[in-house]
């Protein structure tokens, strides 16, 4: 009882940390997709801000559904826009609210994971509070599940699916009547969010199907379950396709509400001809090895050997070890039954854990490993079966200190350091651009970003009608291209109120110095760790370490 009380208190503390750190906010920048797969697009559509639309959201190549961005970032941006229009909050739209409001919604949604663990733990014979502490204390939950990734939604939908298929034990008489319908809705929604969801849904769906077949003696009831699943899946798909078609095509909504019957028929025909099914476009693009190579190719074992360890640490290693042991015992049992008893093998449930739960972890991992492009965030949905497996009796107890240190390091690295200067830099620039001095008389700003992740322009809070701010993203441009661009901008320094800022990590600060262009102001934002341009260990040990772990905002000196 005492241990349970301590676990409850620890979970509550970690849950508060999750919410508080979101509001602080977290400065780490994990990957451009956390901005460019929802918030950036919705900021342009709903708030009419200057943004960069990624190719997946262009009408010429629609590969992402707009439904989830609208339901998450879209709803939050509509809310702060309404508050400002009603004069409830005079300056609701700023860089802080643009960053934090979608993240806050995702943080609230992340507690679906906690609910799922609490519901599922007794079913899979795991300690509920031990599993909840493992979940809440993981830096994957603290950092990744509070960010606006489609992978985050994929993990939440996977958790809901596991709850739905685990609602009754195998000894139960039947599945709940509503489960079939909800399972159909969740599976289809997950597929439209990310088609890779099918890799995660495969084992839960097979498990659910086996429970229904085992528990239903009446063939009519059995067919009824699968019909409900198919009908609800089809209806959900229709909703997504309709919403995406309206968004990505030029068919006007006014045509559909036109009283003219011929116009209405024409609009429906146009919709049919221009029907957008984003998952098929996504699969068509990603099944092409050449396209995947553009985003980076990795060895097929990267998920197993690198990404799993990077996300889950010792828990991933223990799961692999347990998996090999169970596979060895199953093969031994299979041979024993075949050669001695001549009976059916059957899959045993050993005292050290459920093989079925391990399959929920390793089957998606194996399917995702078939693709050459492998990023760690693709695996974050697997945290649920992993913590349930790890929270079984007498498992991972002796590794407590290692688990704590690993997650502290992960939270520091990805939540604070990784590209950690870029978001504060955009906050600083937004305040500069919208300062009273800038508002009183028009100033022109050129913001040149080099060797950083793609800057989300929405955080600068610039209306599409404003033309006094220009953003140039040089990405990882070499010294020659960078100097050429800087010199070109400096030579065109004609207006009296033109300001050119160059944003560059301290590790490549010398590159700009070689360009021979003078600067009058330097602002150092700390910390900022660029893994693409990492600091050198000898330099870190010197007195220049702060510069190496910082991001510079350099203003060109027009007087020279």
Automatic annotation (TrEMBL):
GO terms for cellular component: endoplasmic reticulum membrane. It is found in: Endoplasmic reticulum membrane. The chain crosses the membrane at residues 153-171, 191-213, 225-248, 304-327, 347-372, 378-397, 404-429. Its EC number is 2.4.1.-. GO terms for biological process: GPI anchor biosynthetic process. Residues 1-22 form the signal peptide. Keywords: Endoplasmic reticulum, Glycosyltransferase, GPI-anchor biosynthesis, Membrane, Signal, Transferase, Transmembrane, Transmembrane helix. It is a multi-pass membrane protein. Pathway: Glycolipid biosynthesis; glycosylphosphatidylinositol-anchor biosynthesis. The keyword Transmembrane helix applies. Its main location: endoplasmic reticulum. The keyword 4Fe-4S does not apply. GO terms for molecular function: alpha-1,2-mannosyltransferase activity. Belongs to the glycosyltransferase 22 family. PIGZ subfamily. PANTHER family: GLYCOSYLTRANSFERASE, GPI MANNOSYLTRANSFERASE 4. This is Mannosyltransferase.
């Amino acid at each position: 009882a005492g241990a349970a009380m301590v676990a409850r208190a620890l979970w509550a503390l970690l849950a508060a940390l999750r919410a508080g750190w979101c509001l602080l906010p977290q400065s780490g920048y994990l990957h451009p997709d956390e901005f460019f797969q929802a918030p950036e697009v919705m900021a342009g559509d709903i708030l009419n801000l200057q943004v960069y639309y990624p190719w997946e959201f262009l009408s010429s190549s629609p590969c992402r559904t707009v439904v989830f961005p609208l339901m998450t970032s879209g709803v939050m941006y509509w809310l702060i826009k309404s508050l400002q229009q009603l004069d409830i909050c005079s300056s609701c739209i700023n860089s802080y609210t643009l960053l934090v409001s979608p993240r806050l919604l995702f943080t609230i949604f992340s507690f679906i994971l906690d609910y799922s663990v609490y519901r599922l733990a007794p079913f899979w014979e795991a300690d509920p509070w031990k599993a909840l502490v493992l979940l809440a204390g993981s830096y994957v939950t603290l950092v990744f599940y509070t960010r606006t990734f489609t992978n985050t939604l994929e993990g939440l939908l996977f958790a809901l699916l596991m709850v739905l298929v685990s609602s009754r034990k195998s000894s139960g008489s039947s599945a709940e009547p509503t489960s079939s319908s909800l399972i159909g809705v969740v599976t289809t929604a997950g597929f439209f969010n990310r088609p890779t969801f099918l890799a995660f849904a495969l084992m839960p769906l097979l498990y659910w199907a086996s429970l229904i077949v085992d528990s239903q003696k009446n063939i009519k009831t059995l067919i009824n379950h699968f019909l409900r699943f198919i009908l609800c899946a089809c209806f959900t798909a229709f909703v997504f396709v309709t919403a995406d078609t309206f968004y990505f095509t030029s068919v006007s909504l006014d045509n559909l509400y036109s009283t003219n019957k011929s116009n209405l028929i024409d609009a429906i025909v146009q919709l049919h001809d221009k029907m957008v099914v984003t998952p098929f476009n996504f699969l068509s693009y990603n099944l092409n090895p050449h396209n995947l190579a553009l985003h980076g190719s990795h060895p097929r074992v990267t998920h197993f050997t690198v990404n799993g360890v990077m996300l889950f640490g010792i828990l991933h290693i223990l799961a692999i070890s347990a998996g090999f042991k169970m596979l060895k015992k199953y093969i031994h049992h299979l041979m024993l039954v075949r050669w001695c008893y001549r009976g059916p093998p059957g899959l045993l449930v050993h005292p050290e854990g459920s093989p079925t739960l391990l399959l929920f972890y390793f089957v998606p991992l194996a399917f995702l490993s078939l693709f050459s492009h492998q990023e760690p965030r693709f695996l974050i949905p697997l945290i649920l079966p992993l913590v349930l497996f790890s929270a079984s009796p007498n498992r991972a107890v002796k590794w407590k200190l290692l688990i704590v240190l690993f997650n502290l390091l992960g939270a520091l690295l990805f939540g604070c350091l990784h590209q950690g200067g870029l978001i504060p830099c955009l906050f600083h620039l937004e305040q500069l651009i919208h300062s009273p001095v800038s508002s009183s008389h028009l100033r022109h700003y050129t913001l040149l970003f080099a060797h950083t992740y793609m800057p989300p322009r929405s955080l600068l809070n610039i209306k599409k009608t404003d033309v006094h701010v220009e953003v140039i993203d040089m990405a990882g441009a070499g010294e020659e291209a960078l100097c050429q661009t800087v010199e070109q901008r400096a030579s065109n320094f004609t207006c009296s109120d033109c300001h050119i800022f160059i944003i560059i990590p301290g590790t490549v600060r010398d590159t700009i110095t070689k360009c021979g262009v003078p600067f009058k102001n330097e602002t150092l934002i700390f910390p900022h760790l660029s893994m693409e341009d990492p600091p050198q260990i000898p330099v870190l040990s010197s007195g220049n370490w702060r510069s190496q772990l910082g991001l510079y905002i350099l203003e060109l000196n027009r007087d020279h």
